[in-house]
């Protein structure tokens, strides 16, 4: 089975802009990344988990 990273759409919890990040490969999930928003640069936490064979990203505010 091929394992490859996927682009995940995330919504910033601070400015609510949506952008895509190059997520982890499915074998690396579930995992959690500290990430700075590419739009407003505020820190957030992105949780990646596997739904079927798709990596899903969920964002949380870091404050
Ligand atoms: Zn933002």
Q: Could you explain how this protein is built, in words?
A:
The protein has 63 residues and is mostly beta strands. It has one domain (7-61). Helices cover 0% and strands 52% of the residues. It has strands spanning 7-11, 18-22, 31-36, 43-51, 54-61. The strands form two sheets. It has a three-stranded antiparallel beta sheet with strand order 3-4-5, with no helix packed on it. Strands 1-2 form a two-stranded antiparallel ribbon. It binds zinc ion. Residues 12, 14-15, 17, 37, 39-40, 42 line the site of zinc ion (ZN).
Task: Record keyword descriptors for this entry.
binds zinc ion; 3-stranded antiparallel sheet; 63 residues; 52% strand; mainly beta
Query: What is the subunit arrangement here?
Result: single chain
The number of domains is 1
Percent range for helical residues? under 10%
CA-CA gap between termini: 38 Å
Low-pLDDT sequence parts: none
Structural class: mainly beta
Major sheet strand order = 3-4-5
Mean pLDDT over the residues? 92
- Which H/E pattern describes the elements? EEEEE
Largest sheet: 3 strands, antiparallel
């Amino acid at each position: 089975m091929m394992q490859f990273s996927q682009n995940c759409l995330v919504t910033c919890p601070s400015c609510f802009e949506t952008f895509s990040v190059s997520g982890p490969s499915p074998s690396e999930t579930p995992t959690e990344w500290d990430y700075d928003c590419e739009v407003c640069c505020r820190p957030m936490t992105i949780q990646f988990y596997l739904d079927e064979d798709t990596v899903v990203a969920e964002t949380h505010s870091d404050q």
